[in-house]
Design brief:
- It comes from Canna indica (Indian-shot).
- Residues 22-112 form a coiled coil.
- InterPro entries: PFD_beta-like, PFDN4.
- Keywords: Chaperone, Coiled coil.
- Heterohexamer of two PFD-alpha type and four PFD-beta type subunits.
- By secondary structure, the chain is mainly alpha-helical.
- 69% of the residues lie in helices and 10% in strands.
- The chain is built from two helices and two strands, in the order H-E-E-H.
- A two-stranded antiparallel sheet has the order 1-2.
- Strand 1 and strand 2 form a beta hairpin.
- Helix 1 (13-55) packs antiparallel against helix 2 (74-117).
- The two termini are 18 Å apart.
């Protein structure tokens, strides 16, 4: 703001709380974007593993459990892989829902803060 305009609004305790909350939500939003990216990669990896298992003609396959590979019957691996894919998909959906919720809360706070402070506050990322 340039000198001489004199249109600065007084920042109340409630305003400061809203600004802090917006900052926390913005941080969570970025964390969620990273987590969603990882979850999508995990889903793709499970899908790739499932496709490789379909192409495999072995009755016993090597399955990684932690840091160890174990020989596991193909049917068991198929069941485990399907369960892992379902869990990963549910986790991704949960993250997407939380992201929507965070964005909605941020929009409400933006409206409140821009309504009071107009051009005196910048809540946009550049």
């Amino acid at each position: 703001m340039q000198q001489g305009e004199g249109s600065e609004a007084q920042v109340t305790w409630e305003d400061q709380q809203n600004i802090n909350k917006f900052g926390r939500l913005n941080n969570r939003f970025h964390e969620l974007e990273d987590e969603i990216k990882v979850a999508k990669e995990t889903n793709e990896n499970f899908e790739d593993a499932s496709n490789e298992l379909i192409l495999s003609d072995e009755d016993v396959v090597r399955f990684q459990i932690g840091e160890v590979f174990a020989h596991v019957p193909r049917e068991d691996v198929e069941c485990r892989l399907e369960k892992m894919k379902e869990d990963a998909s549910k986790a991704l959906e949960r993250l997407e829902e939380e992201k929507k919720s965070v964005l909605a809360q941020m929009a409400v706070l933006k409206k409140i803060l821009y309504g009071k402070f107009k051009d005196s506050i910048n809540l946009e990322e550049d």
